Automatic annotation (TrEMBL):
Protein name (record): Zinc-or iron-chelating domain-containing protein
Organism (species): Arenibacter nanhaiticus
Domain of life, source organism: Bacteria
InterPro entries the UniProt entry points to: Puta_zinc/iron-chelating_dom (IPR005358)
Length: 164
């Protein structure tokens, strides 16, 4: 897995022009069965992906924390939301709460998340390849294929399954 993660940014870069063109066409004319196909591809890929061997998302990019996330996680630590914010978060250029740094402070050396049960919604949904109207997050997906080997494989499979 280490080798795969090391090579991923280069492989994603090589696909960038192709992906850009593909997603531009997808946005213009999304196939009727897009949600269904993405669900299938997502499930098939994650059936064979062991995130505990990877954790590259937690190591290289942090989630954003919604107010509901903050309240839930602060409660888990028996902290007041503001105290949790002061201790762990900062506000980024888009005015969102994000981690103060990466790797995520809640990631263990064994790649387990110490707040797994209460982790942010963005962590639960990453890499968003099973979300509805997938064509709407193409810019984000083009970034994620350089971080997440599963997202990379899903996009490659998608281009084969739904040629544009
Ligand atoms: S979601 Fe993707 S980047 Fe995150 S641990 Fe799983 S395979 Fe790795
Ligand atoms: S909160 Fe957990 S799942 Fe989310 S980035 Fe941190 S370690 Fe990963």
């Amino acid at each position: 897995m280490d080798e795969v993660i090391r090579e991923l940014p280069k492989r994603a870069q090589e696909k960038q022009t192709e992906n850009k063109k593909y997603f531009a066409k997808l946005k213009k004319k999304p196939p009727k069965n897009l949600d269904y196909v993405m669900q299938e591809l997502h499930e098939a890929e994650f059936e064979k992906t062991d995130c505990l061997q990877c954790a590259n998302c937690c190591k290289t990019t942090g989630p954003l924390f919604t107010n509901i996330d903050v309240e839930r996680i602060a409660k888990h630590f028996k902290l007041k939301p503001q105290k949790f914010i002061d201790q762990y978060l900062r506000i980024d250029e888009d005015n969102d709460y994000v981690l103060q740094g990466v790797p995520c402070t809640f990631l263990g050396a064994d790649n387990y998340c110490s707040i797994y049960e209460v982790r942010p919604k963005a962590c639960r949904e990453f890499p968003h390849t099973d979300r509805r109207k997938f064509q709407q997050i193409s810019n984000l997906t083009m970034k994620n294929v350089a971080i997440c080997p599963a997202a990379y494989n899903i996009v490659e499979a998608m281009k084969k399954k739904l040629p544009m």
